[in-house]
Amino acid sequence: MTAFAAEFPNDPDLVAAWRRGDEQAATHLVKRHAPALGRYVAAGGASSADVEDLVQETFIRAFRGLDSWRGDGPFRGWLFRIAGNLVKDGFRHRRGRIDVAIEDHDVIDVADPAGELAADETAERIRVGISGLPRLQREVFLLRVEQGLEYPEIAAALGTTPGAARVHYHHAVRRLKELVE
After folding, report:
1. Helix (H) or strand (E) holding 32
2. Nearest to 147 by CA among 41, 28, 13, 27
3. Does 46 fall in a domain?
4. pLDDT tens track, the chain, 181 positions
5. What is the CA radius of gyration of the chain?
6. With 88 labelled, which of 139, 143, 155, 178 sits at a CA distance of 20 to 30 A?
7. Do 160 and 91 have their domain in common?
8. Which of 64, 99, 134 corresponds to the end of one domain?
């Protein structure tokens, strides 16, 4: 951990430092959250060519609108909400298909060709299933599975309650299990 990171170990401290004009604080926030945001927007259906632009635009909007973050919820959740809105806005304009990247080893690891074929088919069914989930179920599922967020963070990111996020997640899991069985 760098001396700077030790001095400002959490997001609210970094945000306060950035508000005081400390550029290094903004850099540290970007380094801390950009990888997870990139995975989130990619899993949400953004093309690989758009991921970097969407992450950059997320931080631009976050830093411009920092006064609207009151600190009563996690900063990371607020960033995910901004990124999610950017992804949704992009789909409204493109009405494109959602592609979710799931590696074969995320689903099943097999050594035989028949097993690999079955794993490919299962992965494809899951990809299609995720893209066919209702928006909130899909977003909750991806934030929980891809990003490892807890329900309060998911709720903050999506503007819902932790209980509702939990329900959306369980509905998504149930629908995906039905597709795989």
Report:
1. helix 23-43
2. 41
3. yes
4. 455 556 667 899 998 888 888 889 989 999 999 999 998 888 777 777 888 999 999 999 999 888 888 777 789 888 998 998 888 877 555 444 444 555 444 444 445 565 566 667 777 778 788 888 888 898 899 888 888 888 888 888 888 899 999 999 999 999 888 877 7
5. 18
6. 178
7. no
8. 99
Which string of DSSP letters, residue by residue, matches 111-175?
SSHHHHHHHHHHHHHHHHHHHHS-HHHHHHHHHHHTS---HHHHHHHHTS-HHHHHHHHHHHHHH
Counting beta carbons within 10 angstroms of the beta carbon of residue 28, is it exposed (0 to 12), middle (13 to 18) or buried (19 or more)?
buried
3-state secondary structure 76-104: HHHHHHHHHHHHHHHHHHHCCCCCCCCCH
Does this model's pTM top 0.90? My answer is no
